[in-house]
Each structure stands twice: as structure tokens, then as C-alpha cells.
Specification:
The protein is an alpha+beta fold. The chain contains four helices and six strands, in the order E-E-E-E-H-E-H-E-H-H. The chain has a six-stranded antiparallel beta sheet. 25% of the residues are buried.
Amino acid sequence: MRAPIPEPKPGDLIEIFRPFYRHWAIYIGDGYVVHLAPPSEVAGAGAASIMSALTDKALVKKELLYDVAGRDKYQVNNKHDNKYSPLPPSKIIQRAEELVGQEVLYKLTSENCEHFVNELRYGVARSDQVLNGINTFVTKVLPAIIEFFSEMGARTPKNNQ
């Protein structure tokens, strides 16, 4: 039997499992979250929200968690509480609500939804998805590319002149 999903508390980080990536929001109470979304995105967009990576602006939205998650699973994930001290919930909520409705700069690698919620909760903008992606690229993809081109170079006949 599966353990029930704990009810989020105000100030909690919510990790939403989208296909191909994780969307992040901050719970502010009464079923609502604040999160970054492209200005054109509708709540519950699911996989279609991957298009948010192609924009350079995002809108800070306050929406029901149920609507933002849509059919995607989600969980409370305050994963950095052991590294950073969370701000008081009242301060997190105040900061989040002050930003609702604002259009902000969006960059996949430095100013995405995960950076946004970590900044609100801890005062530290960070995205493990970006760090993990860079690490995967450097340790797995890049060596494979180098190996591929090395092998291609070894197979290419040399012209003797």
C-alpha cells in the first residue's frame, strides 16, 4: 500500500513531474501555489508546458495546485532544508504574493521555475535540474561525442599526395 501524499504546508516547494522535466511551484495555502509560467501557458498544460523553455519571459502566476499539476504527479520536496535555512512561511508567502502578475526574465539555465522557488524559500536561486543536466553533458554526452569523432577520424582514408 502506498503512503498518502503529505498535505503541503505554506512555504513548501512543490515538485511536479512533467514529462521530460520537473516543474516547480511554491505552496502558499488554501490549495494555491505561485509559480513561473510562460505568459501564454494555461494551467494543467502538462507536456505542452515544455514550450516554456523556448521563451525569455515568464509570468508569476497564482493558481490552484490541482490545476497547475493537471494529471501529473507531484510531491512536497523541500530538498535543501538541510543545507539552507528556510525563510519563515509568512515571509515566503509575502514575497511570492508580491510577485504575482509580474512578467520576469526567464532563462532555462539561470532563471527558471526551480531557481524562482528556491529563491523564495531559501533566498538562494539554484536549479538542480540545470546542474544535473550540465554534469550529465560533461561526463556522458561530451565524451561520447569526442569518441565518435575520434573514431570517424580514424576511419577516414587519408589522401597521400
